[in-house]
Specification:
This protein is an alpha/beta fold and 296 residues long. The protein has 11 helices and 11 strands. The chain folds into 2 domains: 126 residues, Rossmann fold (3-Layer(aba) Sandwich); 142 residues, Glycogen Phosphorylase B (Rossmann fold). Strands 2-1-3-4-5-6 form a 6-stranded parallel β-sheet, with helices on one face. The chain has a 5-stranded parallel β-sheet with strand order 8-7-9-10-11, with helices on both faces. The model has no long low-confidence stretch (mean pLDDT 95).
Length: 296
């Protein structure tokens, strides 16, 4: 069976798409990328992995109705505080929501936990991000052994709030006596990222302010940190508590640092590491997410 996946611009969604692509292939799908829905006008017997930003006119709706099943990523209809003033947090769907909600071949999903911000969408799934166990494998290398490690980018979602959180934590962390492998906007290779996460003692995470305050979603680094390293110290985000009970979190830097120091002295750190890895591989891979979509 063919499935068409919306081609993403380089960035976070590109990596998410690859994770889903490999998972769909695992379940026997032939995967193809498309740029615009109009490219699928002549297709028959296909599945679609798309987003509500594709739904701009009635021609889009016609193509949706041709698909065997559509897995549609949706955005909120409203969002709180200043974030809701920026299009990055809002649905750009231009098709009547009532007609979409009545389609029986449409599976709606989002990263965010159930909340009032999707009031025009009915019956949607919450599917957090996941660990890409196809591309991230343990790779031993003593040259990449750090006390703590972090790989990521600024990821400005409109208000550049994450940058301040990262500067606050990591600039102070580098002044500690810890051996830090902190790589921000360095474009390091996936191989080197694998080695960093595999060989370092602790993986670190930092989120955007909306994630800290609302707690509705977490980033892909949560799953890479737990799935490949096994030990994660993060700022506080509520959704993480549903993913793993073994993640220590704090938004206060002094407490964040103290958590790291305590874990480094914990005699049971390796037991916790293996427990977290098993949990992620069993419950939180892209194969798990695709299975949930297919079960609908």
């Amino acid at each position: 069976m063919k499935i068409f996946i919306k081609k993403a611009v380089p960035g976070a969604w590109e990596h998410i798409n690859i994770g889903y692509e490999n998972a769909f292939k695992y379940f026997g799908f032939e995967c193809y990328y498309y740029n615009n829905l109009s490219e699928l006008l002549l297709e028959e017997n296909f599945y679609l992995f798309s987003s509500d930003s594709d739904l701009i006119d009635n021609d889009s709706l016609k193509i949706l109705k041709k698909a065997n099943k559509i897995f549609l990523f949706i955005m909120p209809n409203k969002f709180p505080k200043h974030w809701g003033q920026h299009q990055n947090w809002l649905s750009s769907c231009r098709i009547d929501f009532k007609e979409l909600n009545e389609m029986n071949n449409l599976v709606k999903w989002t990263f965010l936990e159930q909340c009032p911000y999707f009031y025009k969408w009915l019956n949607y799934l919450t599917l957090p991000l996941a660990f890409d166990d196809f591309r991230y494998k343990e790779e031993k290398d003593e040259n990449f052994k750090f006390d703590v490690c972090y790989v990521g980018g600024w990821a400005d979602n409109g208000f550049d709030e994450k940058r301040k959180n990262m500067i606050n934590h990591f600039s102070r962390l580098k002044k500690s006596n810890l051996n830090c492998g902190i790589f921000i906007n360095k474009n390091i290779s996936k191989t080197d990222e694998n080695k960093l996460l595999t060989n370092s003692k602790i993986s670190l995470n930092i989120h955007d302010n909306y994630q800290r305050e609302l707690g509705l979603d977490t980033n892909e680094r949560t799953f890479k940190g737990l799935g490949l390293n096994g030990i994660l110290v993060s700022d506080k985000v509520q959704q993480i508590e549903k993913i793993s009970k073994n993640v220590k979190m704090s938004n206060d830097f002094d407490e964040y640092l103290e958590i790291i120091l305590q874990i480094l002295k914990d005699p049971y750190i390796e037991d916790i590491r293996q427990e977290n890895k098993k949990n992620i591989l069993k419950n939180h891979t892209y194969k798990n997410r695709v299975q949930e979509l297919l079960n609908v």
